[in-house]
Amino acid sequence: MALPRLLARGLAWPGCGRALHRATSASAPAAPDFNSFVTRTNTCGELRSAHVGQEVTLYGWIQYQRQGLFLVLRDFQGLTQIIIPQDEAHSHVKKLLSDAPVESVVRVTGIVSLRPPGQENLKMSTGDIEVKVETAEILNSCKKLPFEIKDFIKKTEALRMRYRYLDLRSFQLQYNLRLRSQIVMRMREYLCNLHGFVDVETPTLFKRTPGGAKEFLVPSREAGKFYSLPQSPQQFKQLLMVGGLDRYFQVARCYRDEGSRPDRQPEFTQIDIEMSFVDQAGIQRLIEGLLQYSWPEERGSITTPFPSMTYEEALADYGTDKPDTRFGMKIVDIGDFLRRSDIQFVQNALSYPHGTVKAICIPQGVRYLKNKDLESLKESAKSQFNQEIMEIICRPDGSLKSLLTKFLGEKQQSELIQALNMQVDDLVLLAAGEYKQVCSALGSLRLESADILEAAGLVLRDPTVFHFLWVVDFPLFLPKGENPTELESAHHPFTAPHPSDTSLLYSDPTKVRSQHYDLVLNGNEVGGGSIRIHRAEQQRFVLEKVLKEDSEVLSHLLEALEFGAPPHGGIALGLDRLISLIVDAPSIRDVIAFPKSFKGRDLMGSAPDYVTPEELEPYHIQVSWPLAEKEAKNPLT
Ligand code: ASP
């Protein structure tokens, strides 16, 4: 998490006023007036030696109070030291402030003074001054806290979520949400003011759409009929292009009922974009400009254009369609070197049409990976990918140690060393088998090994470095996971085929590449989009003949494409994921004000919740209780 770096610049609220003012790049507007419309004169992060002698009124929470002598007052912008008066005339102020529990919210009025020499706090942006209180008021006292509002105090995530409003008082969450707001503001500026996009809100009560993620259903008063919460505004944004809006964007709420999946949220936010008369390169340049414009200055700068890699290259070299290009350890094809060997499992693998032999080389793996690490890597390849792994190590004298070496001549061994660029103490993990399975297993081991190396103290993936990458030329269709003889869209069914593969759509759809592009940041997919099919007959063919979907559910879209629909394309950026990477948060929950738990629950308000049978009646719904719940006491009866 970014916190340690931020903490390094100060105490709990390290110069945060400054950080938040200057969070965005290039020609940032003047700092906003935080004191308009309210009776405070200043925020708690604002006072400097230039204010000495002024009478000020501050509002904030008591962060800390010491022996009735002083306290530290906190608001969203920083901390100010408040000196509690000790003289008789102010005895009631002293009592009030000394008795107030921490996190009580107070108003203080007093005079700004310089701190006595030697007592300045260089780590606090207000560290040169203190405020000598004249009057004070406890606006609301705080009962015993479930946890301390300090970033370095460890608390369980369930407790943080149960008291989210308290967790929001922490520096880190304040910082994350404010930075998110500034980035979105800059995105709006770039899209609307600089490039003429129109911010259009689209419905969130809609109908079920074929393919893609599972949607949440919302009951309606018409018996048996349900709305769906859209997984994205995909259809609406395309219909806006048919409607001549030309350039659309929306900070769009999307819903996916995907059950418990790590670091996913059932509702999340996309920066959703669609343009008419655009091609893939046009969308890519737009997104590069957008990110560059809205990139926070304190996170360094990003260079454009972003590099690009085909899906095939990504799979071959990194074993995934979202490669983390911050470090090497690429997958190397060693089939040619081993083809002439007598190794049975290698020969078996290579005899199949999609057979391959590949490996990754973990630099200094022998020194940093323990036996149990190696075992757990092998176990993980076996359990996740059903893939056996064999290891080769490079001894101090440069020779190879492995079960395979006795089958390899000296020449083959040195060819292998060269191909894998092996050095003393390097560890090679080798896999033979079906191409996709081998690549995926090695891709996953590459990341797991990087975790192990980093846990041992090496830095492979510097969190301050941002590697953006376009992945392009995806296949238009992929075999369905549960039934590989059927096809599903690699992106979604509205994606257009690659112009040079269009005729293959009708002869061999499995070979068609698409005009789908994904944006990857440090190994995470942060965006995806495509140029769309804009002709009804091609869209109907894809839905009915290739995907075997009932095109009737999409008849409105198919019909719209018949009324002069312009060529169009778009993209959506996953805002939560993007911000979490920018602030180096361990989870997307850390950049969402009120996130759901891993199981999709709101732990603060206890949603989802039961409703009474009477409330369900207008929707023609009856709950058929699972036995366990029937036997347990139903909270509503
Ligand atoms: N609607 C797509 C998604 O949510 C993005 C796009 O194709 O524009 O992934």
TrEMBL record:
<dbReference type="InterPro" id="IPR004365">
    <property type="entry name" value="NA-bd_OB_tRNA"/>
</dbReference>
<dbReference type="Pfam" id="PF00152">
    <property type="entry name" value="tRNA-synt_2"/>
</dbReference>
<dbReference type="InterPro" id="IPR002312">
    <property type="entry name" value="Asp/Asn-tRNA-synth_IIb"/>
</dbReference>
<keyword id="KW-0436">Ligase</keyword>
<protein>
    <submittedName>
        <fullName>Aspartyl-tRNA synthetase 2, mitochondrial</fullName>
    </submittedName>
</protein>
<dbReference type="Pfam" id="PF02938">
    <property type="entry name" value="GAD"/>
</dbReference>
<dbReference type="InterPro" id="IPR045864">
    <property type="entry name" value="aa-tRNA-synth_II/BPL/LPL"/>
</dbReference>
<dbReference type="GO" id="GO:0006422">
    <property type="term" value="P:aspartyl-tRNA aminoacylation"/>
</dbReference>
<keyword id="KW-0030">Aminoacyl-tRNA synthetase</keyword>
<feature type="domain" description="Aminoacyl-transfer RNA synthetases class-II family profile">
    <location>
        <begin position="177"/>
        <end position="608"/>
    </location>
</feature>
<dbReference type="InterPro" id="IPR004364">
    <property type="entry name" value="Aa-tRNA-synt_II"/>
</dbReference>
<dbReference type="InterPro" id="IPR006195">
    <property type="entry name" value="aa-tRNA-synth_II"/>
</dbReference>
<keyword id="KW-0547">Nucleotide-binding</keyword>
<dbReference type="GO" id="GO:0005524">
    <property type="term" value="F:ATP binding"/>
</dbReference>
<dbReference type="GO" id="GO:0005739">
    <property type="term" value="C:mitochondrion"/>
</dbReference>
<dbReference type="InterPro" id="IPR047089">
    <property type="entry name" value="Asp-tRNA-ligase_1_N"/>
</dbReference>
<dbReference type="InterPro" id="IPR004115">
    <property type="entry name" value="GAD-like_sf"/>
</dbReference>
<dbReference type="InterPro" id="IPR029351">
    <property type="entry name" value="GAD_dom"/>
</dbReference>
<keyword id="KW-0648">Protein biosynthesis</keyword>
<dbReference type="InterPro" id="IPR047090">
    <property type="entry name" value="AspRS_core"/>
</dbReference>
<dbReference type="InterPro" id="IPR012340">
    <property type="entry name" value="NA-bd_OB-fold"/>
</dbReference>
<dbReference type="Pfam" id="PF01336">
    <property type="entry name" value="tRNA_anti-codon"/>
</dbReference>
<keyword id="KW-0067">ATP-binding</keyword>
<dbReference type="GO" id="GO:0004815">
    <property type="term" value="F:aspartate-tRNA ligase activity"/>
</dbReference>
<dbReference type="InterPro" id="IPR004524">
    <property type="entry name" value="Asp-tRNA-ligase_1"/>
</dbReference>
<comment type="similarity">
    <text>Belongs to the class-II aminoacyl-tRNA synthetase family. Type 1 subfamily.</text>
</comment>
<dbReference type="GO" id="GO:0003676">
    <property type="term" value="F:nucleic acid binding"/>
</dbReference>
